[in-house]
């Protein structure tokens, strides 16, 4: 026999005005297990709570029902009240007789009847309430950042400044990401390297930051607060502890290879750092192209290395570390426009992409900052820019807008005007999108002061005619086909997800959208969290973004991670799912249903017929379970139950309101 | 290999060379062609732009006849091919269309047989190796621009080759020992019947195509469509008269003519003597007479 | 999972207040509302003082995906005249995917009930967000009207 | 230029847009006016409205203007527009549908093209096949240019490219019936 107390609130006249609260209390006394019922003017007030505490003592109550407002409002208040009275706070239910009754049903008689029903429902449920405990776990106070572009660097610096150790795992030989490839940045046109390289150096010198370049995340186990991460450190063929970055090796190496960093417009050696300010500034050997690895000859770098750092025998190394939080900042790729047959399938050398252009215009790039067209190194006089290539194009590319290309195209046209006197730029666009501070003004300047001719229309065909590129479009504002004889064409290719984004998402157990961008937990209110607790997002891996937005998101992701790492213990909600192991058949249907990957199989040993036998059953990880209850319905055996919302509790409610 | 042969109206008149050379090539490749008995005109673009249903029904009647014989159709003309393909796809993808078409044609076409272009049959299906092995007179590196026209590779997703940069004919040219020049107007439209119906508009399209072909150094253009052929071949004289500085003497060939010649047939037997633009000098240059 | 209902007083007994004339029949609808959207939407209807018939009794669940079809059947067996399952709009689920399950599950449920001879209007699944107080009001009003027209549920009521 | 009253135009054009959708399978409302169709269209230079403008005018409900346009007749049905449209629309099919509608409405803005098509089809209807010589002669006579293309006729005759008599197929009655039926059924269908 339970001892339930019912407390009916007047809320001034909010409830008492249309519900006969006294009658509700009187009726409540007749419900099974109810040993005490009363009404009071303001239940949530100090004296109101005192009424509850006193009654608990006086009547030796072991369950409490408050009939008042929405539990969304005061459930926590009353739970605390129970706790301070020495009771388990989960032995409590609320009947919402205000929002769901007095405020919507002006008829006092009908309202009162319904209020009584609602109290009966709460009383029926509370009888089935069991004491619940929040679980808590310790936290590993270290963060892992995957991807060392501007977003990842910013995240690492912010977390490290807050006093927590951070590891950056970067798959390239250096951190820096795309921003390192960019020459100047809109809308201020400050030099990208001037603002990025100091940050890279800061990161490399920060006592709390460890950079694992040329490395990748191989395996993720564990859960929020306690991830076990396996990282593959790819063989650099250079002993990092011995190498001083003197550069002798790459000076001497006879093997030249197209430089990825320079978008194939320049060369690098087989032993190389991608660019002079690389961090760490120590080389790797590209084993695919190195002659030594190809046919055993050469070894020049090793011969000349003053410190004996070159190590052809080096192997990949796997390390496993514990982290409390993960930030993913793996950035983006450029859309591959070789699907556009009408633009030459990517085979015209002078039809280049935005990133090619960045390298051409960069003073330390392959042309020393001179805009020369790749085919014959002539300086182009007429440059055509084509926007939305692969963006906003369901037929060949992606349906979304890439957000940055309107601005970087304006930037490019500005730079053409500055660098090539007498040149002329044409920009084909569908819309000009400039939603940022100072962006519209920048675009206006490009069109007015830098004389870029904007033409509203999508280009239908680009073809080579002699040494010119013919560009055919429509000026849709006058409604006539137009044709331009260009020397060079720059395509504003869409920003797309990294090709391995899907794999990484599966490794991490986070979700991704139809375009392989990682999905945030809520598009407006939880933009840097994922559905997997403890994994956060920053930068262009979540969707096309420019540098200001990437950095802002990085700060937000860092603060979320810091918030998590600052806790000594992590409390998880008591409303979690629970497996009745004795009945679970181990079919694991529930596992696939859980959106938080909180269910896994475990092996239990039990005595069957006097023999010990092993058996698989489902196990709910209480720190990961968010209490949605989806699994409980999926289990055909009905052996999963959601604590606080058990089948028995809900059925009791159903029965109570159906009388 | 056996196909129901659909020559279409053109191959019996203005495109007679295409008919002659196709028959020769078929013989060499061991492809048996059986002309569809009592076939009718496919309606061309006039048909479907006047009455959508008629545009589907006219080709369907021919397909229905071929279906009775259980043969896929080979249609050398790009326009006929495009109309038949459209009809085939429409009937296959909608029961309602199938029924309506059947009502008009008074014949059942189930979509069990389909249509292929001559390029598909003679080059893609036959295979470049077979073509190479049959070649006895090498084209000697003749620079040839392969012109596919617009309809052969459309609608996108249904055709047998890339819609923007098809290669079937280029590969054939190479297999025959010619040099297929890379050029950007492979699939630009020649205007179809516009040069006849709306001369000025049509001639401009032909002019552009010939100019680009010449500018990339093509010594000849090879086509797979009688309409393209007629526009490019017959209109050169017109253009030379009507357009300042125009001076075109660019030989135009059907791809089947080149194949027949390379396979050792006399050019005349393939119908090559019937062109408007002289072909003898370019053939002479490469010892192909 | 059975509950001894004998011990409970019948609501008819307690509600008949002495002076009230016999009331016309009011349908009884059991509503399962997800905590994040529909329960909040019903709260908003209250905060906005939107009136609707006192026919519905809401049972709060964390997610519409928590609603076991068994609960629905039980409600009908115990004499509910209608059942409403309501949650977040597809794509807005607090738990990301829960309501997709709901959608599929209740389509099947609807067919099952129809098979058992239940008028499909008695069982409805709706998406009502936390800002859709008026939609909650309209849904309950409409459902009440519909069920009034159908009369009490006798089909699945446990034989007593 | 008169302002267009969009209130009445849009209302009136709604049904027509639906009609075009049914006939062509193309929802013109989905066109985002990028102009790629017009940019690639080989005859846009000669059109009074570019293909994109045709799509736009339909969106706005300017039905009559569209049906009276030259563009729908000049369209060579090359399908370049359809092949490249980023929204996977098929303007070529819209052009086809519009030409059929224009003909029904009695707008044949491009006499020569309309005449050519008509002569072409008449030839098919009566012979089962096109009689090219007859077509060309008939067409040139009809458009009062009897000597156009006449220069090429002798050599074509000599080469066997022009026949002096039409080839009549056996099934020509069946073909004629197809014309009649298709006309009747399409009339009812819409
Ligand atoms: C042509 C062009 C010009 C631009 N100009 C401007 C401009 O002027 N102003 C502006 O604000 N923005 C500009 N942008 C946008 C800018 O490049 C991006 O906003 C910015 O680079 C995003 O930073 P990020 O750190 O998110 O991604 P990235 O720069 O892409 O960095 C991601 C990093 O993660 C690493 N990585 C990827 N996958 C893995 C993995 N699986 N494991 C480990 N590491 C991984 C990558 O190697 C890289 O170092 C431009 C973009 C382009 C294409
Ligand atoms: C018509 C309209 C529709 C919109 N629709 C959307 C939409 O659908 N989706 C979307 O994402 N965004 C939308 N937005 C944008 C959205 O409103 C803003 O992004 C958002 O409100 C910004 O939040 P905030 O907190 O920065 O500023 P605010 O919402 O302006 O809040 C600022 C607060 O500070 C208080 N305050 C101001 N000065 C002082 C002071 N000196 N001391 C103390 N307090 C002060 C103000 O009273 C106010 O409460 C819309 C905006 C408009 C105008
Ligand atoms: S508990 Fe709720 S209903 Fe009662 S006084 Fe407080 S706010 Fe009002
Ligand atoms: S020569 Fe040796 S020390 Fe110098 S950069 Fe190369 S590997 Fe490092
Ligand atoms: S061994 Fe390889 S990396 Fe070293 S110098 Fe030779 S080619 Fe270059
Ligand atoms: S930002 Fe501009 S160029 Fe880039 S996809 Fe969007 S509209 Fe096109
Ligand atoms: S669905 Fe049920 S029976 Fe199957 S594994 Fe999960 S809990 Fe066990
Ligand atoms: S209640 Fe929801 S979150 Fe928890 S284990 Fe079940 S499905 Fe996963
Ligand atoms: S290409 Fe397509 S979307 Fe663009 S204007 Fe033409 S029809 Fe419209
Ligand atoms: S089909 Fe017509 S509208 Fe389309 S590109 Fe060809 S000629 Fe132009």
The helix content of chain D, as a percent range, equals 55-70%
H/E series of chain B: EHHEHHEHHEHHEHEHHEHEHH
Taking all Cα atoms into account, the compactness measure Rg of chain B is 19 Å
CATH-derived architecture of the largest domain in chain B: 3-Layer(aba) Sandwich
Features:
heterotetramer, A: 659 residues, alpha/beta, Rossmann fold, FAD/NAD(P)-binding domain, 5 domains, 5-stranded parallel β-sheet, 19 helices, 34 strands, 29% helix, D: 190 residues, mainly alpha, Fumarate Reductase Iron-sulfur Protein, Chain B, domain 2, 61% helix, globular, binds flavin-adenine dinucleotide, binds iron/sulfur cluster
Could you describe the 3D structure shown?
The complex is a heterotetramer of chains A (659), B (289), C (160) and D (190). Chain B is built from 14 helices and eight strands. Chain B is α/β, with parallel strands linked by helices and 289 residues long. Chain B has a four-stranded parallel sheet with strand order 2-1-3-4, with helices on both faces. Chain B is globular, with a radius of gyration of 19 Å. Chain C is α/β, with parallel strands linked by helices and 160 residues long. Chain C has a single domain, classed as Rossmann fold (3-Layer(aba) Sandwich). In chain C, helix 2 crosses helix 5. Chain D is globular, with a radius of gyration of 19 Å. The mean pLDDT of chain D is 86. Bound molecules: flavin-adenine dinucleotide (FAD) (2 copies) and iron/sulfur cluster (8 copies).
What is this structure's SSE topology?
The complex is a heterotetramer of chains A (659), B (289), C (160) and D (190).
Chain A: E1 4-9, H1 13-16, H2 21-29, E2 34-40, H3 46-59, E3 63-68, H4 71-84, E4 92-96, H5 98-102, H6 108-128, E5 135-138, E6 143-146, H7 150-161, E7 166-169, E8 184-185, E9 190-191, H8 192-205, E10 209-212, E11 215-223, E12 226-233, H9 248-252, E13 256-258, E14 267-269, E15 271-272, E16 284-285, H10 291-295, H11 300-304, E17 317-323, E18 325-328, E19 332-334, E20 351-353, H12 354-361, E21 382-389, H13 405-419, E22 424-429, H14 439-448, E23 453-456, E24 461-465, E25 468-475, E26 480-486, E27 488-493, E28 495-497, H15 501-508, E29 535-537, H16 547-566, E30 569-572, E31 577-579, H17 589-593, E32 599-608, E33 611-620, H18 630-634, E34 640-642, H19 647-657
Parallel strand pairs in A: 1-2, 1-3, 3-4, 6-7, 6-18, 7-10, 18-29, 20-27, 21-22, 21-27, 22-23
Antiparallel strand pairs in A: 5-30, 8-9, 11-12, 12-17, 13-14, 15-16, 19-28, 24-25, 25-26, 31-34, 32-33
Chain C: H1 11-15, E1 29-34, H2 38-47, E2 56-61, H3 69-77, E3 82-87, H4 98-115, E4 123-127, H5 133-150
Helix pairs in contact in C: 2-5
Chain D: H1 6-24, H2 36-40, H3 51-60, H4 63-67, H5 71-74, H6 80-84, H7 91-105, H8 111-127, H9 132-142, H10 153-158, H11 172-189
Bound molecules: flavin-adenine dinucleotide (2 copies) and iron/sulfur cluster (8 copies).
